[in-house]
Design a protein that fits this description.
Number of helices: 11
Distance between the termini: 82 Å
Helix content: 55-70%
Largest sheet: 3 strands, antiparallel
Strand order of the largest sheet: 1-2-3
Radius of gyration: 23 Å
Number of domains: 2
Structural class: mainly alpha
Shape: globular
Number of strands: 5
Oligomer: single chain
Order of helices and strands: EEEHEEHHHHHHHHHH
């Protein structure tokens, strides 16, 4: 045998056992993994969310660029109501992706406490832009989507502890009970997507290892919300092709983009009113 050469003798997924002389070593081979990265999913969610909010924060407020819906229709032939429906239908894709990314973030974060505190901080930061964009005034009766994501994360944290410590049916019942409490709090606080949002996050986590069943349950759950969510299941197409890779670092992009874009939309409405 020529001991100067290396011979791959066994492949374990992306690991290759290399024979070199009379010893062996493991070499990690970075095989390209086709699919959609986490950063690409985040960009898709951000773009569809922006499209959705253009409808909700501008068109549905009755004015855009200084013209009412009737004036727009008469002057340039745009049926604002139909345009709004199209924008909102596109926007239905965003929330399921953000929920999926939250679950992935929880599963892979090195510090879940910092993750939770970061979400909580942006709950507070985003509330005023959320109120102004969608209500035109301070309205603390309704809470922005960060509150939904935060409550969902707390449910996941407690569920994981129960999953690790309490096995069998008792553990599953405990996890469901935690989810119900979290959903109840979301409903009481009137968070964006309310109880359904927390439930949906829990479903994506609970079925994380059953890809097909997760997709089926996710689609059925969304469609159960009514015809308004008819396009939301399309979110599971890019989710299905998620390759498990983070992609480019967009860690704080969504956190910052959410309150900033809401404030910008509000300012546009004020300036062109």
């Amino acid at each position: 045998m020529d001991f100067k050469k290396s011979y791959p003798i066994k492949d374990f997924d992306n690991r290759i056992m290399i024979e070199k002389g009379d010893s062996y070593r493991m070499a990690i081979q970075d095989k390209p993994k086709w699919g959609i990265s986490g950063s690409t999913l985040k960009i898709i969610a951000i773009i569809t969310m922006l499209i959705d909010h253009i409808g909700a924060a501008l068109l549905e407020q009755g004015f855009i660029f200084g013209m009412s819906q009737e004036q727009l229709k008469n002057k340039i032939g745009i049926d604002v109501q139909q345009l709004d429906i199209i924008l909102r239908m596109i926007g239905r894709v965003a929330f399921p992706i953000f929920c999926f990314l939250l679950v992935e973030g929880f599963l892979h974060t090195h510090n879940v406490k910092k993750y939770a505190l970061r979400l909580l901080a942006f709950c507070v930061i985003s509330e005023v832009p959320f109120d102004l964009a969608f209500f035109g005034r301070f309205n603390f009766r309704f809470q922005n989507v960060f509150f939904t994501l935060f409550l969902g994360l707390i449910v996941l944290i407690i569920s994981k502890k129960l999953e690790d410590k309490v096995k069998g049916i008792l553990g599953i019942v405990g996890q469901i009970l935690v989810m119900v409490i979290g959903a109840f709090l979301a409903e009481m606080l009137h968070t964006d997507y309310g109880a359904f949002g927390v439930y949906f996050i829990f479903i994506l986590y609970f079925l994380r290892n059953q890809k097909i069943f997760r997709t089926i349950m996710g689609c059925v759950s969304i469609l159960w919300q009514g015809a308004w969510e008819i396009t939301a299941p399309l979110a599971f197409i890019p989710i299905h092709f998620y390759n498990g890779k983070r992609g480019i670092n967009l860690k704080y992009i969504f956190y910052l983009f959410y309150p900033i874009h809401l404030m910008v939309l509000y300012m546009i409405r004020i300036l062109f009113h």
